[in-house]
Amino acid sequence: MAIEDTLTEEREEKMVSSDGRNPTFRMGRFLKPCTYSPEKAASLPHVPFLSETISQNFTKWPSEVLFKGFSPPQRKWKEWVDHLAKKHESTWKKSGIHDAILSSTYSIQINRELLLGLSEFWCSGTNTFVFPWGEATMTLEDMLVLGGFSILGLPVTTPLIEEPLKKIEQKLIAEHKNFYRSRAKKADQSAWINRFMCNEAEGETEELGHVALLVLWLSRYCFSSYPEKVIGKNVFSVAIHLSQGTRLALAPAILASLYKDLRFIYEQVYLTNSASFTVWAPFQLLQLWTWERFPLLRPSYSPNPLHPGEPRVGRWHKSILKLRFKLKLPHVRSILKQIDNFEWRPYVSAINNCPYPSFYIEKEELLNDGSLLEDDELQSFVRCLRSCELVGLDCVEQYLPHRVARQFGIDQDLPGHFPRVNSDRKIAWSSYDRHVRVPKLYIRSRFLEAKCTHRYANWWKDSMLVRREAIKDVLEKRERLTKNFKVHPQAEKEQSNRDSWGDHPPGFAPKKANFKVNPKAEASKMRDEEQSNCDNWGDHPPGFTPKKANFRREKHCDIDEDNEDYDPIGALRKRSGSVKTQKPGDGGRKRIALTSRFYNSKELVLVEEETQSQKEEPKDLMPIWNDDDYEDKEDYEPIAALWKRRSRSVKTQEPGNGKWKMTSQTSRFSNSKGLVPVEEETQPCGMVLITIDDDDD
Fold first, then answer.
1. Are 128 and 401 in contact (CB under 8 A)?
2. Which one of 41, 90, 147, 644 is most buried, counting C-beta atoms within 10 A?
3. Which residues contact 24 (CB under 8 A, 6 or more apart)?
4. For range 118-147, the mean pLDDT
5. Using CA of residue 430, residue 431, residue 437, residue 442, what is the dihedral sign?
6. What is the pLDDT of residue 448?
7. Bridge partners, residue 367, by sequence
8. What pLDDT was estimated at residue 176?
9. pLDDT at 662 over 70
10. What CA–CA distances, in Å, run from 355 to 182, 346, 571, 625?
11. What's the mean pLDDT in 7-31?
């Protein structure tokens, strides 16, 4: 490949070990961009990390953090992979995904305390973990060695251009739609396996079987997204390219998703203080990275031995079952803060049945004979060392390996500034895929320990002190703002009421009536209102409504019988359906649904209650009949003395108490002149039946 510039620069410097001891003068080699001046160095942003805010009780972890991208292998997944590996192993190696697919068949149990404790040290401004002793981060080298993902190749956003590839995509889309027509209404990942794995022997889906496996692998183990455990159409083009042996750069895309979700964790805890949230990146890679570099955080003292052909992840298969002790967050924090617990280059250690990449050599070497252009592993190592933009499926993140040069065996000096070039995906990808002018690369021996300059060691101590004071001021200012804006609970409640009600005339409902009603107080208020109605009745002329007429029954007299338009109620006959009756004085008629005959007298009649569907406005009720007006008559019999001719009893209203009592009987009663007992009909319509016996009938 054509090369644009060299990756490192050389000069003699005073070097010290990572802990600041053993100073020596020697020739140092440093990753670009770097600088001599502390004033020009790219310092850490003065933004509090979660490790600082949580330790000072400014923030705390939410009750629930879900790592949905941390997916264990399905029951039939390994069987399906082993079956198709016999046919397509060469294609997988050509596209650079062979080890990555095999790694997905191993089970890695999640350790939440480990991931949460590590996330507390994340800095979104540099995409590195900032520990008291220095910076470290996940790099493209980790994606290559731990995950088996390809660093070289086309971007994952490469579209399908050839017509045969588009036809395969259309078939996948049609299959995807069929799942949404099923009872499940979604393309579930388990159903996806059953559809393509179980039917492959019948030849129905043999053409799509290989592509379907890659679609599931990408949807579940690489680019998980909402909704959970559902096949995503966004990976169809990626799977089709890989099925044809086209190499895609999956390593930068997956690393970008991890950077993105680590920043999302910080924002949810520190900025929004969320009660719960979900992240979708494959955090099992971050957990493996921690186990490789912090031995004290490993689940067991000795990882699993590797068999020939196994990927490196096999060392940690079901390792959570061999726990030495259960990790707690305070224990994780204390281990992460000690530099002696960190291994800068864990992948150069000798492991049985684990071959070394070609850039892990025993003696340091300067490659300038063109061999760099022919070796894919060396080209991959060049990408690991170069600052650039990482292009993912839905994000672009900055990659700054010059801040963690010791992870590659290269000396560390003051990091220089690297400007962002993420305005466009094409421009961002060009920063990743740019070429080198001179085919020259210096590779350190895997046995040599990388060091840092004495200048860098002093700069780190000073910058951490300056930052500590700046963060202290930031947190104190935030605390003052919190106290100033803190409102007393009662005042906050009153303000809420004022905001809800606003200004409105007395007796009218507020603009926003989102308030709670006390049932007991409301019932007492209704009783007082009813008593007030009774007190306000008083004496009034016959045939007129009372002052407050919130009742549903009315008194009616045939006093207008000389009127031409008057139709006596006694003349109405209705055997089925509804009856229209006239209300005296209003000139109108009202409809009632009675199914029995009516008998009218010259004295009193009650107007029936309408059905629910016919209800209109509440009607006025005439005052209750008073027994005092009829006591001197010989044939008068009070309502309380009425007796029932059938087996069950009837409750009636005693004269003078101002209320009517309803009954559930339909039997008829004989009554003295002028008084009628009220009975409730037992039909579901909820109306009242009136039976009147006239002395003359």
1. no
2. 147
3. 14, 15, 16, 451
4. 96
5. negative
6. 87
7. 441
8. 93
9. no
10. 47, 14, 111, 108
11. 91
CA dist 218 → 92, 189, 279, 351 (Å): 14, 11, 16, 29
C-alpha distance from residue 117 to each of 53, 198, 343 (Å): 13, 43, 18
Spacing of C-alpha 174 from chain mean position? 29
3-state helix vs strand vs coil in the chain, percent to 5: 40, 10, 50
Chain length of the chain:
697
Q: Which amino acid is at 57?
A: N
Q: Place 513 in a pLDDT band, splitting at 50, 70 and 90.
A: very low
Task: Work out the angle between the directed axes of helices 77-95 and 189-197 (0-180°, nearest 10).
Answer: 80
Strand, coil or helix: what is 412?
strand
From CA 292, how far away is CA 307, in angstroms rounded?
19
**What are the structure tokens assigned to 345, written together?**
């280059």
What pTM value is reported for the model?
0.70
Residue 403's nearest CA partner among 348, 460, 357, 458 is 460
SS3 per-residue string spanning 628-672: HHCCCCCCCCCHHHCCCCCCCCCCCCCCCCCCCCCCCCCCCCCCC
Joined tokens for residue 70 = 């941390």
Match 């804006």 to its residue by tokens: 485
CA atoms within 13 A on the CB side of 685: 17
Would the pLDDT of 573 be above 50? no
For residues 354 and 313, give the distance between their C-alpha atoms in angstroms, rounded to a whole number.
Answer: 11
* φ, ψ dihedrals at 128, nearest 5°: -135, 160
Residues 321, 324, 325, 329, CA torsion sign: negative
End-to-end CA distance of the chain: 119
DSSP string, 466-520: HHHHHHHHHHHHHHHHHHHT---HHHHHHHHHHHHH-S--TTS--S-------HH
Mean of the per-residue pLDDT values for the chain? 77
**Could you tell me which of 234, 258, 523 has the C-alpha nearest to residue 393?**
234
State pLDDT tens for residues 257-276: 999 999 999 999 998 888 89
DSSP-derived 3-state class of residue 115: helix
